[in-house]
Design a protein that fits this description.
six-stranded mixed β-sheet, alpha/beta, Rossmann fold, 12 helices, 3 domains, 449 residues
Length: 449
């Protein structure tokens, strides 16, 4: 297996593949010239830049639209296709000013050839030299493409956006290739004695963590791997989070605190356990802030529910209403009452973790998210006293977890905080993203470099 993921640039001759190759490398490795057929071999180079989350092998392939096929060109085409089949991500480059018959043929091949069904393909329109061209891509959408990234490889327009999309596609395609994978990692956090270790033990069915009424029994993060509904899950019972120790005398507390933070950072999602008998306190709010800083999806588990007296069918809804009044972010977080000791509704937490896991790789078609955002902006609930109204020009998804959209707008300053919050809430509601951190990054046209 190749040491690095493979990203291959393909398309017709003379659409700018070698120029894009050099642009992404920021080096003149591939020969570029304004006539077709310059590249005959597969040119490869390791990309190790700060723009990318991991190293990858970038490959420039020959143009595939050869009219007069002889033994040499047939061999070139076969080599290029084999390169595409071995790739983790294909960058299909087109010329903004010319969609040819061959583009139709190759796109049809990508759809019908089962060997490409599992391939991630990012469609790119090159030679879009000005902002107006970014919003005039109807010819491409008529081909059935869900998203096209408009760029100018020569002028480096929108290359930062393309970098983000490459990271996004590679992140999801590589996670699907792992053999016997850990499907997702769950960090269990909370204040000391909130019942984290009991929660872990109730899931595993045996005593993996030491349980004691003495606060702070768990000093280190305790990992365990188990299978639930055919998913391999790694669960991490962290040390009870308390005020960070600052003195050398408290070195054990210091290391426990920092290891808990690292566990949150490594996890895919976090279960935040609170004590039902004590409710949510100021340090619980601090723990929530730490989780949000790491942009992790969160589930709130209200533990020791068995100790709540005189319960009826309305008790939990009343409890949650009171919780939200003290802690407003709770309205957007899946909240479940449990008892770790009696194992009451513990599997509900795992079910919620699975729901988050299935949303972690969500990919929303660009045309759909643009249509919805524009609809929400015009539905009458977004008002402005300014002469100019906020206007969305183009938006695209660049991350799933955290869920992030980059939106190019007429004027960033027209999008007030209440407008941004409203759009985030609509996104959360439309795509069932409760518990997720949602980022909506606004950029103006002049920032599209």
């Amino acid at each position: 297996m190749n040491q690095f993921p493979i990203v291959s640039i393909t398309g017709r001759q003379n659409v700018g593949k070698s120029t894009l190759f050099n642009c992404l490398l920021k080096k003149n490795i591939a020969i570029t010239h304004d006539y077709p057929g310059v590249t005959r071999d597969i040119i490869q180079h390791i990309v190790d830049k700060e723009n990318y989350e991991k190293k990858f092998l970038l490959c420039d392939t020959p143009g595939l639209d050869v009219e007069n096929i002889n033994d040499l060109t047939a061999n070139i085409i076969e080599t290029a296709f084999q390169q595409l089949l071995n790739s983790d991500l294909i960058l299909y480059l087109t010329d903004r000013h010319q969609i040819s018959e061959y583009d139709h043929k190759l796109l049809e091949l990508f759809k019908k050839d089962t060997r490409f069904n599992s391939k991630s393909i990012l469609y790119i329109a090159n030679k879009v030299d000005n902002p107006e061209g970014d919003y005039d891509l109807e010819d491409f959408y008529r081909l059935g493409l869900q998203e096209v990234i408009p760029i100018s490889a020569l002028g480096r327009r929108n290359i930062s956006l393309l970098n983000e999309k490459i990271n996004f596609f590679l992140r999801s395609s590589l996670s699907e290739k792992e053999e016997n994978p850990i499907h997702f990692k769950v960090a269990v956090v909370g204040k000391p004695n909130s019942g984290k270790s009991s929660f872990l033990n109730s899931i595993l069915g045996y005593q993996r963590s030491v349980v004691s009424e003495i606060a702070g029994t768990t000093r280190d993060s305790v990992n365990a791997i188990f299978t639930y509904n055919k998913h391999n899950i790694e669960i991490i019972d962290t040390a009870g989070l308390r005020k960070q120790a600052k003195t050398t005398e408290d070195s054990v507390e210091f290391y426990s605190y920092n290891r808990a933070l690292k566990s949150i950072e490594k996890a895919d999602m976090v279960v935040h356990i609170i004590d039902a008998t004590k409710g949510i306190g100021e340090f619980d709010k601090k723990i929530y802030s730490l989780i949000r800083e790491k942009a992790k999806p969160i589930i709130l588990a209200v533990n020791k529910w068995d100790l709540i007296q005189d319960k009826d069918s309305n008790t939990f809804s009343e409890y949650k209403s009171s919780l939200i009044s003290r802690f407003p972010p709770a309205k957007d977080i899946p909240t479940i009452s449990i008892s770790s000791l009696s194992k009451q509704r513990v599997t509900k937490i795992l079910e919620e973790c699975e729901k988050i896991y299935h949303k972690m790789n969500i990919k929303i078609p660009t045309s759909e998210i643009n249509q919805r955002l524009n609809s929400w902006l015009q539905d009458g609930k977004v008002t402005s006293k300014m002469k100019k109204r906020p206007k969305l020009l183009y938006a695209t998804q660049v991350s799933s977890s955290p869920f992030k959209l980059v939106a190019f707008v007429n004027h960033v300053e027209l999008f007030r905080m209440d407008t941004i919050s409203y759009l985030k809430n609509k996104i959360r509601e439309a795509y069932d993203l409760n518990g997720f951190t949602i980022h909506l990054e606004l950029r103006s046209d002049r920032e599209k470099k």
